[in-house]
Design brief:
By secondary structure, the chain is mostly helical. It has one domain (26-198). It is 84% helix and 0% strand. The protein has helices at residues 2-9, 28-68, 74-113, 116-164, 170-198. Helix 2 (28-68) runs antiparallel to helix 3, helix 3 runs antiparallel to helix 4 (116-164) and helix 4 (116-164) runs antiparallel to helix 5. The longest helix is centred in the last third of the chain and has 49 residues, at 116-164. The relative contact order is 0.10.
């Protein structure tokens, strides 16, 4: 049964009843309560991400005006742009996590409150939503990783320029190179997972 695999992946397979056709199980209320608590946490995450985006957007708007007038260092402008871009994507990512959690909740509701064909139909529909939302969330993770890689490359270029002018130290160059390499590895990681999800 595919739902057993999914519940196992969610770390709650130990709460499954021995008889998969059993509608009422004493652990169902406990599991559903915990899922509701987690759902409220995800809703709070979305609200926090909205606040963060509002702040970063206001700062970036100011930075853009300064950049047009040549009144801000490029690296500082890029840092503000990076924060705004990642905050924009992170909000969508957290909304997707919320939707994924709602699908997870619906899986448990179907499992604990229904039986037979109705249970199977409800679980399959919720599982499709869960998987589709998770794939979209991986796409947002990849987008953030790509933005980070582009930003770290810009930082490395800036640090190397400073090094040539005897402003930055060699260890700062090495650390900037490390940041680029790690950002590249994250892009590769999320690219691989996104491709696997699409398949």
């Amino acid at each position: 049964m595919r739902i057993v695999v999914l519940l196992s992946a969610l770390g709650l397979n130990a709460l499954l009843p021995a008889n998969a056709d059993m509608v009422e199980h004493p652990l169902c209320p406990i599991v559903q309560h915990q899922i509701q608590v987690n759902l409220e946490d995800r809703e709070s995450d979305v609200a926090l991400a909205e606040s963060r985006l509002e702040a970063t957007r206001a700062i970036f708007d100011m930075a853009e005006k300064l950049n047009k007038d040549g009144l801000i260092e490029r690296i500082r402008y890029l840092a503000f742009k990076y924060e705004n871009d990642t905050a924009t994507i992170d909000l969508e990512r957290r909304r997707l996590l919320l939707e994924r959690h709602k699908a997870q909740r619906d899986i448990y509701v179907a499992f604990c409150s229904h039986s037979g064909d109705e249970r199977r139909t409800r679980i399959q529909a919720a599982q499709r939503r869960y998987e589709q939302t998770d794939c979209r969330r991986l796409g947002e993770d990849l987008a953030i990783a790509e933005i980070d890689l582009a930003y770290q490359k810009e930082v490395l270029t800036s640090v190397k320029d400073l090094r040539e002018n005897n402003v930055a130290t060699l260890d700062e160059v090495i650390l900037a190179e490390l940041d680029v390499e790690q950002a590249r590895q994250r892009v590769e990681h999320y690219s691989k997972r996104a491709r696997a999800c699409a398949d």
